[in-house]
Amino acid sequence: MKKSVVLYPGLGVGHLTPMVALANVFVQHGATVTVALVEPPTTSPEFSAALTRAAASNPSVTFHVLPPPPPPSSPAGSSISDDATSSAQQHPIVLMFERLKSMSPPLRNFLRSRLPAVDALVLDMFCGDALDVAAELNLPVYYFYASGAGDVAVFINLSRSTTTSSVDLDGDTVLSFPGAPPFKASDLPQEISNGSPGAKPILHALSRLPEADGILINTFESLEPRAMRALRDGLCVPDHSTPPVYCIGPLVSGGGEKEHECLRWLDTQPENSVVFLSFGSMGTFPKRQLEEIAIGLERSGQRFLWVVRSPRDPEDMSGKPLPEPDLDALLPEGFLGRTKDMGLVVKSWAPQVDVLRHRATGAFVTHCGWNSTLEGITAGLPLLCWPLYAEQRMNKVFIVEEMKVGVEMSGYDEEVVKAEEVETKVKWVMESEGGQALRKRVEEVKDKASQALKEGGSSHAAFVEFLKDLDNMRSL
Ligand SMILES: *[C@@H]1O[C@H](CO)[C@@H](O)[C@H](O)[C@H]1NC(C)=O
Ligand SMILES: *[C@@H]1O[C@H](CO)[C@@H](O)[C@H](O)[C@H]1NC(C)=O
């Protein structure tokens, strides 16, 4: 019989995109998919737009917006909390987890209305509360982890080791986790290591990963063999069984953009000759850092395509979209004129997947978000790693030391990365023998990635196995 699954991406547009990519894998394997969505607490044009876009481009997937939660019953005494407590309670991460918790009743009602015609519930990494809903309804439940297996190995061990509300460590302390190379405490996400009020709910959510019936990961087996072995051998959580782990990636979405000026410009450039610099949808730099990058690029003499975003005011927590950057004011005087035959600076956004796959692109300076990492690898490009926030520093360690598909841009953890470093690394990757060897290595990894996704490849087979395991669960 045709399987039917409900995917639950939690809150935030960033969590929706990877879930939609997963939805399409289910559809390809003949399943019926409903994505159950949580509306942000306040009206969000961004959410509506993302939903409209997702629904329009994925007609075989049903999108269902869950009704809002019942109003909170205000607990007695909450009004006398002191300032520190209430500001911690206002922390965006704390609020997000509260919202997710409050969504359990609407989610339960929705699933119950569909039963018995739902075979499984698939959760985003932050949606641990939904495990309880699934248990109540006796429904098989899985996680979809949109980042790599190295992250999973580290986080399930770390989240279960810490009974305190955050990891209180000196930044230089070297940490060792099963399945991962040693790295410094300062490479952990800041949300966990700096005593942020968000640490406790994040660690709590991650500590529940082993409770699911399985974990689907957006990676492929041969990219992260050590982390996969540690997870399978149960080394990460010796006191609890680790559920089956299925590498089903790399799922990369996007691409197909045709008409952007930068693609036309790339068409006129020689093969493998352009360094692409882009730092994700949240990555911004102060003017001083933009200047160092500009000087380094110019001195390197290499061709470049650089996405520049306006600096963000560090005080501004609103998450409002940034204005278009004023390039003349931000970049060194005369830079654009002097480099106009070598490079192109685009404002705010570029069609990244298409740029990376363009034959003229030769290397990728990246913030090491998992999306971008997979996009770079599947385009066969060496990565110059410049991590900025969240789990990106850990990803950098994995990229450089485990997967061996990139090198680091030194100084990212100091005040600025110097022009000299930008110049040296860009020249190294484009001109040196080391750079050539790295490109060759990434091309091999790219081939393995595409093999993995083919019928009979490891990721395809893992998904088939997952569906079979699900059948067995349903017949228990
Ligand atoms: C991955 O990329 C998509 C498309 O660029 C974006 O919408 C989404 O937020 C990204 N996801 C993550 C986890 O960064
Ligand atoms: C973390 O991993 C180490 C090594 O396998 C293990 O000794 C330790 O018990 C793990 N921590 C937890 C909380 O499972």
Your description of this structure?
With 476 residues, the protein is α/β, with parallel strands linked by helices. It folds into 2 domains: 4-253 and 453-475, Rossmann fold; 261-450, Rossmann fold, CATH 3.40.50.2000. It has 20 helices and 15 strands. The strands form 3 sheets. It has a 7-stranded parallel beta sheet with strand order 3-2-1-4-5-8-9, sandwiched between helices. A 6-stranded parallel beta sheet has the order 12-11-10-13-14-15, sandwiched between helices. Strands 6-7 form a two-stranded antiparallel ribbon. Helix 5 (104-114) packs parallel to helix 6. The chain starts with a strand and ends with a helix. The model is unreliable at 77-81 (pLDDT under 50). The structure holds 2-acetamido-2-deoxy-beta-D-glucopyranose (NAG) (2 copies). The site of one 2-acetamido-2-deoxy-beta-D-glucopyranose has 7 residues, from helix 1.
Q: Main traits of this protein?
A:
Rossmann fold, 6-stranded parallel beta sheet, alpha/beta, 15 strands, about 475 residues, about 45% helix, binds 2-acetamido-2-deoxy-beta-D-glucopyranose, UDP_glucos_trans, 7-stranded parallel beta sheet
